[in-house]
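Dear Dr. H.,

I hope your travels went smoothly. While you were away I took the liberty of generating a structure for the chain from your last submission, since the lab meeting agenda had it listed for discussion. I wanted you to have the full record in hand beforehand rather than looking at slides cold. The sequence, exactly as received, is reproduced here:
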Amino acid sequence: MIKISNQSCSSCSDDLDLENYEKESFFEIYFWYFIILSALLIGISIYFEFAFDVLIITQVLAFSSIFLSSYGVATEAVKDVMEKRITANILIIIAGIASFFILHGQEGATAILLYAIAERLEEITTDKSRNAIKQLLQLTPNEALIKHDNGYVLIPTKDVKKGDIIGIKPGMKVPLDGIVIHGKSYFDQSAITGESIPVFKQEGDEIFASSINSDSFIDIEVLRESSNTLVAQIAENVRIAQQNRSKNEKFIEKFARYYTPIIVICSLFVMIVPSIIFNNFYDWFYRGLVLLVVSCPCALTLSTPLANIASLTKLAKDGILVKGNRFIEKINKIDVFAFDKTGTLTEGKLKIFDIISYSGLNNKEIIKLAASLEVLSEHLIGQTIVNQARDMGILFQPVENFEVIKGKGIKGVINGELVSVGSQKFIEELDIDLPLEDLEEFEKIGTIPILLANNKELLGIITIRDVLRTTAPILIDGLKRRGYKTVLISGDNQFACNTIGACLDIDHSYGEKLPDQKLKKIEELKSQYKGIAMVGDGINDAPALALSDLSIAIGASATDITIETSDVIIINDDLKKILTFIDIAKKTNKKIKQNIWTSIIVKLSFAVLTVIGLMTLWLAVGIGDMGVSLLVLLNGMTIFRYKYPYRDIPLEEIENKAKILICDNCNTKNIIPQHHGRDMVKKGDKLICWRNILSSKELEPCDEELPLDCPHCQGKMVLQ
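The corresponding predicted structure, in token form, is as follows:
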């Protein structure tokens, strides 16, 4: 369950809807009508000049066109003057008006016309990117079906309180975050987590607002009110992230502050000094005006922020929250990814791996004895055995004189015989001979051995281990293909870490690390490599996350402090999203570089052409200034076209609905064998490794398979 900050987002919607909002003026409402009239006046002016050579009339027509096209540019220029800033708006107005002094009014009017059109197109393009954030808030319905004693009543979503019960009909969007308390159904969460495949939800599962119910009516208990849903939190995070600017943005903003006044001085120099030297004021004044326009820093100042906005919004839609533009920039400096194990690469869910008998008892009898004791215990490992027994339909036996030996195990009398369950150390204290070689082997493969004994002998051993996340091998394989090193740093024992590391082909595995030791290991790695990214979910990961160059939290299982510490949050458990973040971040940084260098090269080239007299005012505005600005904007917007390269596979395909294997002849029951950290799955008349189903060009296949033969009567085992 993802933890959401208690900070209210009640102002998020208002901020996003009302920020910078002003009522459109008459000229802005009918902008394109005025532009058409302005263009017609310029056309008539040019025609009159060539057809009738009436210079004054042509200049009057050109000047009139400025009144129709310059409203937005002129009002912005006035604001800039009042704020004591020299901007492109001021430069274009100066150049446009000054062109009339050398009787080039048509060019000046055309420059302002083209600039006004480009500004409007830029505004539309920018709004498209920014509106994507507003759309996140508009995903949730405005009304909810709240449950009362006499039925369901439709009320505004904002009036629903935490703890209220609301009904969700098939085909209906979930209005608020909540927990399923009645019913089960599939939900489309693509708008929130980016998952393309509907997710099955049943009692006890959390559902996010904006998810779409597929087939069955359910009731949910509201977890968060409308102002603090996950959707609202995403929008707030994106809004805050936009303010957390990257180094590129800060540098370009500072650069533009000094660059523009320098351009004004250079333009004046071109107008005055060569005019005195060559006694040709008309020609050099014109070149100075062109230089003034062509050197406007519009494209350069737009090169970074719009690409970052597009990136943040795209990532948010894919279920990835980034706390600032600078963390997108940081991906280029990372060359090692470090991982916690439990809850990050694994699900944090213990499962029985194997059952070994040492006394002639069969698997069912060993599970029955152990579970009969463990059902009276609250230990997590014990509950794993109890759950397995219930799946196998085993009835627990009565226990007398039950006792817990803290930190070691439990014991009790079953059918008149004292039975003990616990660690190796606990059973050794009972003076019972143990298979030390077997125990060493269990430890080497990363399993936890639970020993079962009576007063005389060892009855059996149940081995338990954590379950690997299905997306973990795709993540590690994807990181390697992208050239990253991988490291596992965990508090679990070294053998368990080695097993997971080998299973995933991780470069280095470091086990038995306390939080402060994880911190020291990150410090060591930082001294060896250019940049370290840390991925974790628990409280013990927080110090290491804080020290790393880039920190990523797996949000579905992450603690509050982990989410607070992290730079990037993956909303669900899909580790492939880390690859999505890397790809989009790198694509963004690439687009920014393209934009910056395109702007610089075009500006310098056009400036040189201007000084040597090969540039006109029309070309300066149409291509050199606003043409490049639009190119930069459109290039940044291509980030929205990023396509996820990995196919989503329904969990049902790689997870058995059945809990046990049972022989259809002798009724022998057994656990489902594991391979690569998870249960094997049925395919035809055999069991295969689950990784084989995930296999694609991005992941090496696993050909492990087992026949479904009963070990006792050679009959066929079936999953049940």
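Two observations you may find useful: Residues 400 and 413 are 5 Å apart (CA to CA). Residues 1-21 have pLDDT under 50 and may be disordered.

With kind regards,
E. W.
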